[in-house]
Write a structure and sequence with these properties.
- A hairpin with a 2-residue loop joins strand 5 and strand 6 (about 175-180).
- Strands 1-3-2-4-6-5 form a six-stranded mixed beta sheet, with helices on both faces.
- It contains ten helices and six strands.
- It is globular, with a radius of gyration of 16 Å.
- It has one domain: 3-Layer(aba) Sandwich (Uracil-DNA Glycosylase, subunit E).
- It is α/β, with parallel strands linked by helices.
- Helix 1 (about 1-10) crosses helix 3 and helix 3 packs antiparallel against helix 6 (about 125-140).
- Bound molecules: iron/sulfur cluster.
- Iron/sulfur cluster binds near residues 44, 55 and 126.
Length: about 210
């Protein structure tokens, strides 16, 4: 049984160090995440299901203290079934590594699990339809910090429009967790001079998550 879960862990990008130290609680989390993953593949709660190749649950350490949450999968993510693997994802990975950490230490997901056509921003209704899946992921993983990438992800949590360039870097309380608002890596691809700001927020999120 354990071997089966270790195989799943490897498939969803968890490194061998974690696998060697995985315990039964971790295995339960992997199983719950696996079940959630199956549910979203069948989900038709909003019209985004019509455009997906596959729904994308997320990946990473099921015991992560920090969860990165973006807007929705893009074309590469929809094709590969993994979050943040396109150009924006590569930038996110690079900035995490620049802090001295590995992407696999954390958990990465999106508010919406299906790709909106043409990568448009999900509507508030589409966000609302998908949010219970994210809430269940948060409940299973139980991170200390949620780092929200971009205005759309922040809007889904705060239920109000967010000016991310003005509000980035803020730490807010949400259901007993801390939210850190920051720019979406895709914004940095269009505005490279803002990369330092995203790095600053990612570092703050990691430092807060790993502090006692
Ligand atoms: S985006 Fe979410 S709510 Fe909409 S179909 Fe996909 S999994 Fe279901």
């Amino acid at each position: 049984m354990i071997d089966k879960y270790l195989k799943v862990l490897k498939e969803i990008g968890i490194d061998e160090v974690f696998m060697e130290t995985a315990n039964h609680e971790s295995m339960d989390k992997v199983k719950l995440l696996e079940e959630l993953g199956k549910e979203i593949q069948e989900c038709k709660k909003c019209d985004l299901y019509k455009h997906r190749k596959q729904a994308v649950l997320g990946e990473g350490n099921p015991n992560a203290k920090l969860m990165f949450v973006g807007e929705a999968p893009g074309a590469d993510e929809d094709r590969l079934g993994r979050p943040f693997v396109g150009r924006a994802g590569q930038l996110l990975t690079k900035l995490i590594e620049a802090t001295g950490h590995k992407r696999e230490e954390f958990y990465i997901t999106n508010v919406n699990k299906c790709r909106p056509p043409g990568n448009r921003t999900p509507t508030p209704w589409e966000q609302e339809a998908c949010f219970p899946f994210l809430e269940r992921q948060i409940e299973i993983i139980n991170p200390k910090i949620l780092c929200l990438l971009g205005a759309a992800a922040a809007r889904a949590f705060l239920k109000r429009p967010v000016s991310i360039t003005k509000e980035r870097g803020e730490v807010l309380n949400w259901n007993g967790k801390k939210l850190i608002l920051t720019l979406h890596p895709a914004y940095i691809l269009r505005n490279p001079s803002a990369e330092e700001l995203l790095f600053e927020d990612i570092k703050k999120a990691i430092d807060l998550a790993l502090s006692d």
